[in-house]
């Protein structure tokens, strides 16, 4: 079918594409006009113009489509290819996206005739496919900095073992903080096993767990309804449903809910992680406890709770989960943001 994005990496069939000579000639004319526009109105240097044109031509070759056939989905696929397969630096990807955005601005400008020409000859018009100036940044994903890279399996296991050891030690000594340490150990397991950010974990309520048809054996803990940590101005807070994929973590939560949470005097409140003072465990408190355990183990001091979320994505992908499934689980808008986690390989993952 014409415009099928699933075929974006291969040329369209002759039935879908206008005769190549006619379409290619119009595309070349667009690029020539854009070059003149940059030279005369923007005073761009020839080297800059040449680099931008090369980016646009490479994008066209990748999609196998012409500008009047391009869509934001084509852009997502290309950025994913650049970041995951070619491993281009975020700054390079941003530069490529800027070139495409400038070209789309030119061919869609109302004072140009390209829209009318495309509509007349091919029945479709070019559109601005680079709507979000920040889109390229999101493709850096968890590798945007050392504080967002995935923890290895060995690091995750050591961290959880240490958290459990703190619970046992506090209970053995009759320490009054045993309850909080048990709660915190469970928080970290939930962050990892459901791919949450610290703020998402903090906002959880006891009623956010629910059954799911795909995993009936997990009962009421088959899925987790998560409030998005980022809210779009003027719109209600988004939610996503995260299907439970790690039964061992479900066991940990089930035990916490049944045996530990009721011991808090404030357990009648909705907060899944109550505090002894009657409040809700805050994101900052999660970060501070994580840092204390991290430093006690001598792990990389750049690690943050987000690295557990990144590890969730990376480990699911490494274990063969579909990219679209992981993307939906973590609530990413762009698939390449999730796909960037695939760069963590078993060599060194523990």
From TrEMBL:
GO terms for biological process: DNA integration; DNA recombination. Belongs to the 'phage' integrase family. Residues 25-108 form the Core-binding (CB) domain. Pfam families: Phage_integrase (PF00589). Transmembrane segments: none annotated. Keywords: DNA recombination, DNA-binding. This is Site-specific recombinase XerD. One of its GO terms (molecular function) is DNA binding. Residues 146-350 form the Tyr recombinase domain. InterPro entries: CB, DNA_brk_join_enz, Integrase-like_cat_sf, Integrase_catalytic, Integrase_recombinase_N, Tyrosine_recombinase_XerCD.
